[in-house]
Amino acid sequence: MNVLLTNLALAGFFLQVPLVAAILAKRLWRNFPLFSLYAVSNFLATAGLYALKAAGGSPRQFFYAYWVCEGIAVLLGFGVVYEIFRTLFGEYSALRRLAIGGFRWALTALVLLGIVVAYAQSSGDKNPLMAGVLLVEETARTIEVGLLMFLFLFSKAFGLHWRQHIFGIAMGLGIFVATELVGVATRAYLGPIAFQTFAVARGVAFDMSVLVWLGYLLVPERVTAGAEVPNRAQLEQWNQAIMELIHQ
Length: 248
Prior knowledge:
Layout lengths: L1 H24 L7 H22 L4 H30 L4 H25 L10 H26 L11 H26 L4 H24 L13 H15 L2
Protein backbone atom coordinates (compact mmCIF):
# COMPACT_ATOMS: atom_id res chain seq x y z
CA MET A 1 0.00 0.00 0.00
CA ASN A 2 2.85 2.40 0.81
CA VAL A 3 4.44 1.67 -2.57
CA LEU A 4 1.10 2.38 -4.29
CA LEU A 5 0.73 5.68 -2.44
CA THR A 6 4.27 6.68 -3.37
CA ASN A 7 3.67 5.84 -7.03
CA LEU A 8 0.42 7.83 -7.08
CA ALA A 9 2.19 10.81 -5.55
CA LEU A 10 5.01 10.58 -8.11
CA ALA A 11 2.52 10.22 -10.97
CA GLY A 12 0.67 13.30 -9.74
CA PHE A 13 3.92 15.23 -9.50
CA PHE A 14 5.06 14.38 -13.04
CA LEU A 15 1.57 15.08 -14.45
CA GLN A 16 1.60 18.50 -12.83
CA VAL A 17 4.84 19.48 -14.58
CA PRO A 18 3.21 19.81 -18.06
CA LEU A 19 0.10 21.29 -16.45
CA VAL A 20 2.07 24.13 -14.87
CA ALA A 21 4.01 24.55 -18.12
CA ALA A 22 0.74 24.81 -20.08
CA ILE A 23 -0.63 27.39 -17.62
CA LEU A 24 2.49 29.50 -18.03
CA ALA A 25 2.66 29.06 -21.81
CA LYS A 26 -0.98 30.00 -22.33
CA ARG A 27 -0.82 32.75 -19.68
CA LEU A 28 -3.91 31.32 -18.06
CA TRP A 29 -3.34 33.40 -14.93
CA ARG A 30 -4.70 36.43 -16.79
CA ASN A 31 -8.21 34.93 -16.97
CA PHE A 32 -8.06 32.41 -14.11
CA PRO A 33 -5.56 33.67 -11.51
CA LEU A 34 -6.99 31.60 -8.64
CA PHE A 35 -6.97 28.36 -10.61
CA SER A 36 -3.42 29.08 -11.76
CA LEU A 37 -2.39 29.70 -8.15
CA TYR A 38 -4.23 26.53 -7.07
CA ALA A 39 -2.41 24.40 -9.66
CA VAL A 40 1.02 25.87 -8.94
CA SER A 41 0.58 25.59 -5.15
CA ASN A 42 -0.46 21.93 -5.49
CA PHE A 43 2.66 21.28 -7.56
CA LEU A 44 4.89 22.95 -4.98
CA ALA A 45 3.12 21.17 -2.10
CA THR A 46 3.57 17.77 -3.77
CA ALA A 47 7.26 18.48 -4.37
CA GLY A 48 7.78 19.79 -0.85
CA LEU A 49 6.08 16.87 0.88
CA TYR A 50 7.96 14.32 -1.19
CA ALA A 51 11.24 16.11 -0.45
CA LEU A 52 10.44 16.14 3.28
CA LYS A 53 9.70 12.43 3.23
CA ALA A 54 12.82 11.62 1.20
CA ALA A 55 14.94 13.70 3.60
CA GLY A 56 13.81 11.56 6.51
CA GLY A 57 11.46 14.04 8.14
CA SER A 58 9.69 12.84 11.26
CA PRO A 59 6.04 11.70 11.12
CA ARG A 60 5.11 14.73 13.22
CA GLN A 61 6.77 17.11 10.76
CA PHE A 62 5.10 15.41 7.81
CA PHE A 63 1.73 15.51 9.59
CA TYR A 64 1.81 19.26 10.13
CA ALA A 65 3.28 19.97 6.69
CA TYR A 66 0.59 17.87 5.03
CA TRP A 67 -2.33 19.50 6.81
CA VAL A 68 -0.99 23.01 6.29
CA CYS A 69 -0.78 22.27 2.56
CA GLU A 70 -4.23 20.69 2.68
CA GLY A 71 -5.70 23.74 4.39
CA ILE A 72 -4.24 26.02 1.74
CA ALA A 73 -5.57 23.72 -1.00
CA VAL A 74 -9.07 23.75 0.51
CA LEU A 75 -9.15 27.55 0.61
CA LEU A 76 -7.78 27.87 -2.92
CA GLY A 77 -10.19 25.20 -4.19
CA PHE A 78 -13.04 27.19 -2.72
CA GLY A 79 -11.58 30.22 -4.47
CA VAL A 80 -11.55 28.37 -7.80
CA VAL A 81 -15.27 27.67 -7.48
CA TYR A 82 -15.79 31.35 -6.71
CA GLU A 83 -13.72 32.28 -9.75
CA ILE A 84 -15.81 30.02 -12.00
CA PHE A 85 -19.06 31.64 -10.91
CA ARG A 86 -17.57 35.13 -11.07
CA THR A 87 -16.48 34.48 -14.65
CA LEU A 88 -19.85 33.11 -15.68
CA PHE A 89 -21.72 35.99 -14.05
CA GLY A 90 -19.33 38.60 -15.44
CA GLU A 91 -22.09 40.16 -17.56
CA TYR A 92 -24.61 40.25 -14.71
CA SER A 93 -23.60 42.64 -11.93
CA ALA A 94 -26.43 41.71 -9.56
CA LEU A 95 -25.89 37.95 -9.87
CA ARG A 96 -22.14 38.45 -9.48
CA ARG A 97 -22.69 40.56 -6.38
CA LEU A 98 -24.98 37.90 -4.92
CA ALA A 99 -22.47 35.14 -5.66
CA ILE A 100 -19.57 37.09 -4.11
CA GLY A 101 -21.62 37.81 -0.98
CA GLY A 102 -22.59 34.16 -0.66
CA PHE A 103 -18.97 33.03 -0.91
CA ARG A 104 -17.87 35.54 1.72
CA TRP A 105 -20.50 34.36 4.18
CA ALA A 106 -19.66 30.72 3.49
CA LEU A 107 -15.95 31.34 4.04
CA THR A 108 -16.65 33.19 7.30
CA ALA A 109 -18.86 30.33 8.46
CA LEU A 110 -16.10 27.82 7.69
CA VAL A 111 -13.55 29.74 9.74
CA LEU A 112 -15.93 30.01 12.70
CA LEU A 113 -16.83 26.34 12.39
CA GLY A 114 -13.16 25.37 12.49
CA ILE A 115 -12.63 27.36 15.69
CA VAL A 116 -15.69 25.89 17.39
CA VAL A 117 -15.17 22.23 16.56
CA ALA A 118 -11.38 22.06 16.88
CA TYR A 119 -11.74 20.89 20.49
CA ALA A 120 -15.36 19.79 20.64
CA GLN A 121 -15.94 17.39 17.75
CA SER A 122 -16.55 13.74 18.53
CA SER A 123 -15.67 11.35 15.70
CA GLY A 124 -13.65 8.24 14.83
CA ASP A 125 -10.50 10.24 15.67
CA LYS A 126 -9.58 10.60 19.32
CA ASN A 127 -7.45 13.61 18.46
CA PRO A 128 -9.80 16.63 18.76
CA LEU A 129 -7.60 18.73 16.46
CA MET A 130 -7.79 16.11 13.70
CA ALA A 131 -11.53 15.75 14.20
CA GLY A 132 -11.99 19.50 13.82
CA VAL A 133 -9.82 19.66 10.70
CA LEU A 134 -11.75 16.82 9.08
CA LEU A 135 -15.11 18.40 9.86
CA VAL A 136 -14.06 21.76 8.42
CA GLU A 137 -12.73 20.08 5.28
CA GLU A 138 -15.89 17.99 4.97
CA THR A 139 -18.02 21.14 5.22
CA ALA A 140 -15.92 22.96 2.63
CA ARG A 141 -16.05 20.03 0.22
CA THR A 142 -19.82 19.75 0.67
CA ILE A 143 -20.23 23.39 -0.30
CA GLU A 144 -17.92 22.98 -3.28
CA VAL A 145 -19.70 19.85 -4.53
CA GLY A 146 -23.11 21.52 -4.13
CA LEU A 147 -22.05 24.60 -6.05
CA LEU A 148 -20.46 22.55 -8.83
CA MET A 149 -23.57 20.36 -9.13
CA PHE A 150 -25.66 23.52 -9.43
CA LEU A 151 -23.25 24.77 -12.08
CA PHE A 152 -23.51 21.63 -14.22
CA LEU A 153 -27.29 21.39 -13.84
CA PHE A 154 -27.68 24.91 -15.22
CA SER A 155 -24.71 24.81 -17.58
CA LYS A 156 -26.82 25.59 -20.64
CA ALA A 157 -28.41 28.60 -18.98
CA PHE A 158 -24.94 29.86 -18.02
CA GLY A 159 -23.65 29.43 -21.56
CA LEU A 160 -21.18 26.78 -20.42
CA HIS A 161 -19.99 24.43 -23.17
CA TRP A 162 -18.05 21.19 -22.65
CA ARG A 163 -15.21 22.43 -24.88
CA GLN A 164 -14.57 25.58 -22.88
CA HIS A 165 -11.58 25.80 -20.55
CA ILE A 166 -13.83 26.87 -17.69
CA PHE A 167 -15.88 23.69 -18.11
CA GLY A 168 -12.70 21.61 -17.91
CA ILE A 169 -11.59 23.44 -14.78
CA ALA A 170 -14.97 22.81 -13.16
CA MET A 171 -15.12 19.15 -14.20
CA GLY A 172 -11.59 18.37 -13.02
CA LEU A 173 -12.21 20.07 -9.69
CA GLY A 174 -15.56 18.28 -9.38
CA ILE A 175 -13.93 14.85 -9.76
CA PHE A 176 -11.44 15.63 -7.03
CA VAL A 177 -13.67 17.35 -4.47
CA ALA A 178 -16.44 14.74 -4.80
CA THR A 179 -13.94 11.95 -4.10
CA GLU A 180 -12.39 14.03 -1.33
CA LEU A 181 -15.81 14.57 0.26
CA VAL A 182 -16.56 10.84 0.38
CA GLY A 183 -13.06 10.08 1.62
CA VAL A 184 -13.02 12.73 4.35
CA ALA A 185 -16.49 11.72 5.57
CA THR A 186 -15.39 8.06 5.74
CA ARG A 187 -12.12 9.00 7.41
CA ALA A 188 -13.90 11.14 9.99
CA TYR A 189 -16.35 8.34 10.80
CA LEU A 190 -14.01 5.34 10.85
CA GLY A 191 -10.91 7.07 12.16
CA PRO A 192 -7.26 6.34 11.27
CA ILE A 193 -8.11 2.80 10.11
CA ALA A 194 -9.47 4.28 6.87
CA PHE A 195 -6.47 6.51 6.21
CA GLN A 196 -4.74 4.41 3.56
CA THR A 197 -7.95 3.69 1.62
CA PHE A 198 -8.77 7.40 1.68
CA ALA A 199 -5.26 8.31 0.58
CA VAL A 200 -5.37 5.93 -2.41
CA ALA A 201 -8.79 7.18 -3.57
CA ARG A 202 -7.63 10.76 -3.16
CA GLY A 203 -4.44 10.13 -5.13
CA VAL A 204 -6.29 8.49 -8.03
CA ALA A 205 -8.90 11.27 -8.13
CA PHE A 206 -6.28 14.00 -8.07
CA ASP A 207 -4.30 12.41 -10.90
CA MET A 208 -7.51 12.12 -12.95
CA SER A 209 -8.28 15.78 -12.30
CA VAL A 210 -4.82 16.83 -13.47
CA LEU A 211 -5.31 14.79 -16.65
CA VAL A 212 -8.64 16.54 -17.28
CA TRP A 213 -7.12 20.00 -16.75
CA LEU A 214 -4.13 19.18 -18.92
CA GLY A 215 -6.33 17.81 -21.70
CA TYR A 216 -8.52 20.91 -21.74
CA LEU A 217 -5.54 23.24 -21.83
CA LEU A 218 -3.92 21.37 -24.71
CA VAL A 219 -7.08 21.20 -26.86
CA PRO A 220 -8.18 24.42 -28.61
CA GLU A 221 -11.04 26.10 -26.79
CA ARG A 222 -14.40 26.53 -28.46
CA VAL A 223 -16.17 29.80 -27.67
CA THR A 224 -19.90 29.46 -27.09
CA ALA A 225 -21.98 31.54 -29.45
CA GLY A 226 -24.92 33.55 -28.19
CA ALA A 227 -27.31 31.41 -30.24
CA GLU A 228 -26.24 28.37 -28.18
CA VAL A 229 -27.55 29.93 -24.98
CA PRO A 230 -31.35 29.67 -25.18
CA ASN A 231 -31.86 30.62 -21.53
CA ARG A 232 -29.78 33.80 -21.59
CA ALA A 233 -32.99 35.85 -21.31
CA GLN A 234 -33.82 34.02 -18.08
CA LEU A 235 -30.46 34.97 -16.59
CA GLU A 236 -31.10 38.56 -17.55
CA GLN A 237 -34.48 38.41 -15.82
CA TRP A 238 -32.88 37.00 -12.65
CA ASN A 239 -30.26 39.73 -12.76
CA GLN A 240 -32.88 42.45 -13.18
CA ALA A 241 -35.03 41.03 -10.36
CA ILE A 242 -32.07 40.98 -7.96
CA MET A 243 -31.12 44.53 -8.93
CA GLU A 244 -34.63 45.70 -8.14
CA LEU A 245 -34.49 43.99 -4.73
CA ILE A 246 -31.10 45.59 -3.99
CA HIS A 247 -32.32 49.08 -4.82
CA GLN A 248 -35.57 48.83 -2.87
